[in-house]
Amino acid sequence: MRDTVMEYETSKVLKFAREGKRVDGRALDEMREITIETGMSENAEGSTIVTLGKTKIIAGLKVDIGKPYPDNQDEGSISIGAETLPLAHPDYESGRPSADEVELARVVDRGLRESKAIDFKKLCITKGEAVWVGFLDFYALNGDGNLFDAGSIAALVTFNNAKLPKLDKEGKIILHEYDGKIKLARQPLLTTFAKVGGKIMLDPTYLEEKASDARYSAATTDDGFISAMQKGVGGSFTLEEVDYMIDKAFEIGDKIRKQIKQVK
Amino acid sequence: MRDTVMEYETSKVLKFAREGKRVDGRALDEMREITIETGMSENAEGSTIVTLGKTKIIAGLKVDIGKPYPDNQDEGSISIGAETLPLAHPDYESGRPSADEVELARVVDRGLRESKAIDFKKLCITKGEAVWVGFLDFYALNGDGNLFDAGSIAALVTFNNAKLPKLDKEGKIILHEYDGKIKLARQPLLTTFAKVGGKIMLDPTYLEEKASDARYSAATTDDGFISAMQKGVGGSFTLEEVDYMIDKAFEIGDKIRKQIKQVK
Amino acid sequence: MRDTVMEYETSKVLKFAREGKRVDGRALDEMREITIETGMSENAEGSTIVTLGKTKIIAGLKVDIGKPYPDNQDEGSISIGAETLPLAHPDYESGRPSADEVELARVVDRGLRESKAIDFKKLCITKGEAVWVGFLDFYALNGDGNLFDAGSIAALVTFNNAKLPKLDKEGKIILHEYDGKIKLARQPLLTTFAKVGGKIMLDPTYLEEKASDARYSAATTDDGFISAMQKGVGGSFTLEEVDYMIDKAFEIGDKIRKQIKQVK
Amino acid sequence: MDRKIDYKKTKKRLDGRKMDETRPLSIKTGVIENADGSAYLEWGQNKIYAAVYGPREVLPKHSADPLRSVIKVEYRMTSFSVPQRKRPGPNRRDQEISKVLGEALSRAVFVEQFPNTEIGVYVEVVDANAGSRVACLTAASVALADAGMPMRDMVAATGVGKAYGELVIDLNKDEEDAPDAVDIPIAILPNSEEIVLLQMDGLLTRKEWDAIAKLGIKGCKQVYEIQKKALVEKFELSEAKGKSQVAKEKTVKKKTVKKTVKKVKK
Amino acid sequence: MDRKIDYKKTKKRLDGRKMDETRPLSIKTGVIENADGSAYLEWGQNKIYAAVYGPREVLPKHSADPLRSVIKVEYRMTSFSVPQRKRPGPNRRDQEISKVLGEALSRAVFVEQFPNTEIGVYVEVVDANAGSRVACLTAASVALADAGMPMRDMVAATGVGKAYGELVIDLNKDEEDAPDAVDIPIAILPNSEEIVLLQMDGLLTRKEWDAIAKLGIKGCKQVYEIQKKALVEKFELSEAKGKSQVAKEKTVKKKTVKKTVKKVKK
Amino acid sequence: MDRKIDYKKTKKRLDGRKMDETRPLSIKTGVIENADGSAYLEWGQNKIYAAVYGPREVLPKHSADPLRSVIKVEYRMTSFSVPQRKRPGPNRRDQEISKVLGEALSRAVFVEQFPNTEIGVYVEVVDANAGSRVACLTAASVALADAGMPMRDMVAATGVGKAYGELVIDLNKDEEDAPDAVDIPIAILPNSEEIVLLQMDGLLTRKEWDAIAKLGIKGCKQVYEIQKKALVEKFELSEAKGKSQVAKEKTVKKKTVKKTVKKVKK
């Protein structure tokens, strides 16, 4: 049953695509509406809910004190994880991270990390002994496509607004007291496209992803860099298509960065 | 085949229940015979086999030296685990702990822990450095229902009779030499009931559990406290039923505690 | 399909066996050709490819600095692992080690370890503080039977040729610089037989293993010791058969040891 | 936490509540578009999403029950919902809570109507401060009603117990850490007062239990009123929309839900 | 352990045994009610429960063998059966032992009689002191006979090897730790002397092997006598009960067992 | 690594290569007898085995795609292929690489011709030094052709990016560690120049991308020439063997491969 419905819906997406249209009436290069809320989790050092159309994601950051790695005595660390909760879509399953979840987490992670937005040296407390170790995890609460961009926005906003815990004289964390922030050097954001029936669609929905041949994401920064790329799914892109998407990614990235600036 | 037999057997249990009877001739509030043996495992710091009718459980305690938790520098620790071995019943499976096994272990654990029977400070060897870390594991050897109570008795008797290892001058354990005991502050015991065909049955067999709508356990202590409760299975109890079962749990608990006192 | 082909092939092996023959024309006590290559992995402290007929195995050793075990303050350690990669045979699967892989690794490990070929005291860097910890892993690249002997040769040659990393003044490993070797006290090698249709066959192929009732391996050393034995598969051997195989194992072991000596 | 706190003297609780006062509780339905039913709940600091999918096919098939639908609850916490980061994957506590929540909900839903199926109930704690399991059960029950599931009754739950010398309803984290703390999660079908969840940790006299049980049932009934309100709001909202596109698409489901709500009310 | 111990001088072993003397061994059948067959064995300090379930359906089906029953052995140790607490779940040693025990038992049972089925053999070590694998194999074989399984022969097993300069039977832990220790688990079908289990660790000359092999077969045969005794006791016990309720219920099974026992004797 | 290295000054790279020069690359087919197709590749220090099995049945069946064959890639590294020992089992990086390699190959193979099947592609890195994923993709593509798989085109891959101030092709480990390093794995179908793999890490201007993209496509085409050579060698070899036993046995497969090679050439 579900399969049949799904097949009908994706074939509809394809039919629309052939005419350069989208089922939800958007232009091919139109982003869905984005809303951003922060601070819902008091136990987190930072938390954000992003909705992107019907897609809804929550991200949260926990920060703890850890030992530095032997070869980076004066650097803290950040890990990013992603879960597509079975709460969020009938197709999502619980259990060990799927290849999709691993890719999602790693692409969002790289977009941030490789842009050198985070200065890991500033996460050092005492060289060789104590550093900040951050875990940012984001979870799909409702899945309707483009978890990459929603996750990327949620992660960036969470870092922008995160507070570092206050330490007592013995260097232990004082619960629910804070002292300083994680200042980002730049603002990297992913922008994702799907190729559906030969057309490039910005910000694909779940159905558009199902109907798509290929996916492409680029992370752009506010100071004009590309900081990550990822091509996915079994199809291909021409170099011209990639070039078009990079330009568009800069444009869209700047727009969203403006919106993010309003978030306190 | 097994399923058909099982269905016939449980329907028989239900038929008997409707008339206020039990298949094995016991009264509704009658416990099966309990036998207790100790000390079978020389390598354990304490070990006990409990039979409860045809249910048979072995428990053993291993004690080792460990580091205290950072926030409890002067306290040792105890963990309780449970396994329903495939050896003990055709329905039991090996592999990762099932939800049933997790619940069983945790309810027996809480019955002991939350009664404050064990003074964790007395398990401290050197503050901040070395404490006793105990692992009590119990295993079903033959499963015929009410593993909760059999496990609870086995755990309590094991702690009552356990010996702490002797330490040499360097603070290392001397194998097979002992020095002191774990003295319990009180004697908590679980008592479990099943609701079968609307009747409350003490100490259910495997078939009675299969035929039951709901399960209720209460841990009582020799000094008049309730130290744990757990309702299980998909049905419900009225408050009156719960009150009845608590009173009965105290009565049965006291009886079994008397029997336990005889165990050396 | 595969199953039917397999059945036909094994029945052919059995038919040949009854006449004292082998499908590939070898005598019952004839080994397949062995080739040995070393040093293909620059990142390994030692590496070897062994081909035994169509069976092909790669072994590699990684050495790191570790803490000694509390009860062996002046001894390093060696672990041996085995994987039958799905790359190497349509029947091999990825995932957690199968019972076959575990047995393979453990038998090769014991053949070496129990012969006391490796002096673990010589793997000590600083007593109680730093020791060499070696991991030798071997992988089937093409599986055509008798992974035991191929693995045993690959492991032995790898240890014979392995280099220990050079340390800087702070006791850290200098990448890609070496200083000294792991000298073996003796040269243990496994020799494996299958019982097929009542006949004892040296160095069985994959099909011969499939058609076999029982398997027997003995590790022999250059100074005349048996250092390990392992009987496998559901059938049985008479004591006379075992005695024959031990004698043959010494003979074959000596031959292969001669070939190994040529390897630089 | 100061161990000399005495509620018998202070007469009010650390957070200013009366002994029988529940922390602020609000529930909203229909928060997860993809789900057949869903709820978002805030209870004190606790923040919880619940979603219901089903009844749907069970895989693998041999694990289905030919007599009833199996309610499969997954209780999870985000890594950042607690002061100390929670590792991914369910721990033993999560597994036990999932089990008892599923058992409690099984009594409320007419599971016999959907043999050989599964009803997936997913609850995700995104912020926690004592009482997350009863908060989840409360949210899950509303999500089931939101999904139009035929129900015998709602499941209303609360924490109840003892802290700093007094019997109290709905313990918060500071109270759970009291030296004499006893925390009892309890859930009932509010109309029949059947007890469907009951767990207890700590030391309690027989007499204390009697008072606590009454307090617990009282607490559950307070919770029930808020559950009903959430469902009525949802119903009124969908009524108000009249013949709008959305309402039309979901017409069948709404009707079923209406029935459930009425049932619950009578 | 003093490394200067020399059995050539002491003429007897650390625990007073003669070189070819087995530790005290006793076996009892029918100890696990739910099982189709079971045994409890004490061998020196080793204490072992063994249970047999089957032949029974294999799940998943595609893992069945259309030509024979698959004997699936699970060798496990309780966490408290060894001086250093054993972690839950099978380690690599357990996996290997399970494999070789299953292979050894496959030769003894007429597995061809039950195609597409599985015979589950579970052995649990509750106290251990060297030789637990051969003790488990010995117990499992008795449990299979107790289950009335049609058998070619029993499987009788022992440890044999070298310690402190002498060849010895049934090494204990102290002997396993001898500097020259060689421990060889061996199992045979006692009537045909077919070797069905053989493992070896350590350094042994060809000549030592010859003597050890003979010693091992001798040891296995001693074990076999005790296995037979356990089965005869069980048979006599069930005979004695005559037409009692218990005997009646199990009548079919007992007969099969009798046959097995006779077979074993001839 | 000296952080003051400046390729703009040195005009050549640390290992002596020109900016647009690929490390030595050689490929051999037919190296794994059991596989339907296989390849061994050396690319600088990288050493890789690739094997293809299939199209074959998918288990469990419900995971099959009724419209196409699913290409399942497993990218693995031996424990000793990297300076710091790699633990057994795939890590998150391996999982992601397996996924993107499978997606890249899917475009090249006519997967629609084999519905409900799986093509297993296994790549094993036995020595690594930067660029192992593109090396694996290059090897896997040759192994697919060696298996006679009907293909739209080869997949040719390379690393390309930036190091020490210059745009370079095929970064090695020392260059990957450059402070300004940007490493971009790219793969194309060489005849249509369709991009089937593209990943990027680091900081790059829009302008740099334009130059790098051209460089990358150039690099892929160099790789493609070597892939063709490997397949031609194999074809000539099998031609040379004429009516030999080996050739006869594999006759059907060879023909298919020939077709592929021709296709690739035109």
Percent range for β-strand residues of chain A: 25-35%
Examine the coordinates and then state which fold CATH places here, giving the name of the CATH topology of chain A.
Answer: Ribosomal Protein S5, domain 2
Number of strands of chain A: 12
Q: What percent of the residues of chain D sit in helical stretches (DSSP H or I)?
A: 25-40%
- CATH class annotation of chain A: Alpha Beta
Largest interface: B-D, 35 and 32 residues
Helix and strand sequence of chain D: HEEEEHEHEEHEEHHH
Low-pLDDT ranges of chain A: none
Coarse structural class of chain A: alpha+beta
The profile of the biggest β sheet of chain A is:
6 strands, mixed
Catalogue the unreliable spans of chain D: 243-266
Give the count of helical stretches of chain A: 5
Instruction: Name the CATH homologous superfamily of chain D.
Output: GHMP Kinase, N-terminal domain
The number of helices of chain D is 7
Structural class by SSE content of chain D: alpha+beta
Number of domains of chain D: 1
Show the helix and strand layout.
The complex is a heterohexamer, with 3 copies of chain A (264 residues) and 3 copies of chain D (266 residues).
Chain A: H1 2-18, E1 34-38, E2 46-52, E3 55-66, E4 77-84, H2 99-113, E5 124-126, E6 130-142, H3 147-161, E7 163-167, E8 173-181, E9 189-196, E10 199-202, H4 206-211, E11 214-220, E12 225-232, H5 239-262
Parallel strand pairs in A: 4-6
Antiparallel strand pairs in A: 1-2, 2-3, 3-6, 5-6, 7-8, 9-10, 9-11, 11-12
Chain D: H1 7-10, E1 25-29, E2 37-43, E3 46-57, E4 70-77, H2 92-108, E5 117-127, H3 132-146, E6 156-163, E7 166-169, H4 173-176, E8 182-189, E9 194-205, H5 206-240, H6 245-249, H7 251-265
Parallel strand pairs in D: 4-5
Antiparallel strand pairs in D: 1-2, 2-3, 3-5, 6-7, 6-8, 8-9
